Amino acid sequence: MTNLERNLNLAEEWSGTFKIMGDPTRLKLLNAIHFAGQFKLSVSELADATGVRVATTSAALRAMELNGTVTSTRDGRSILYGIADDHVHQLLHWIGSSHLHQH
């Protein structure tokens, strides 16, 4: 594989991630999840934290889950969200997003 082919493959690999992160609502949600930590916030808590309507938050999370950007887990009656893609986690650090907790 040539360097050009590798670069073209990277463009295909990353385009979905950049599409997700290019949307301000989705990026706010990712930042809120990243800051709070994995599987700490529900849909309504994410909506409150970001100032986004619950229905919009739910739809954005659903799209990101289908894309593989986030994942969810059930905790009783709540569904909590975490970042599923380590590339997204790294990009959030690169743009300056921090954690509430230390690793």
Helix and strand topology:
Elements: H1 3-21, H2 24-36, E1 41-42, H3 43-50, H4 54-67, E2 70-75, E3 78-83, H5 86-94
Antiparallel strand pairs: 1-3, 2-3
Protein name: Metalloregulator ArsR/SmtB family transcription factor
Keywords: DNA-binding, Transcription, Transcription regulation
Domain HTH arsR-type: 8-103
Explain briefly what this protein structure is.
The protein is an alpha+beta fold and 103 residues long. It has helices spanning 3-21, 24-36, 43-50, 54-67, 86-94; strands at residues 41-42, 70-75, 78-83.
User: What characterizes the major β-sheet?
Assistant: 3 strands, antiparallel
Order of helices and strands: HHEHHEEH
Low-confidence stretches: none
CATH architecture: Orthogonal Bundle
Q: How would you write the strand order of the largest sheet? A: 1-3-2
Which structural class should the secondary elements be placed in?
alpha+beta
Given this structure, which CATH class is correct? Mainly Alpha
Average residue pLDDT: 92
Q: What is the first-to-last residue Cα distance? A: 37 Å
Beta-strand residue percentage: 5-15%
Number of extended strands: 3
Count of DSSP helices? Answer: 5
Give the CATH superfamily.
Winged helix-like DNA-binding domain superfamily/Winged helix DNA-binding domain
Radius of gyration, whole Å: 15 Å
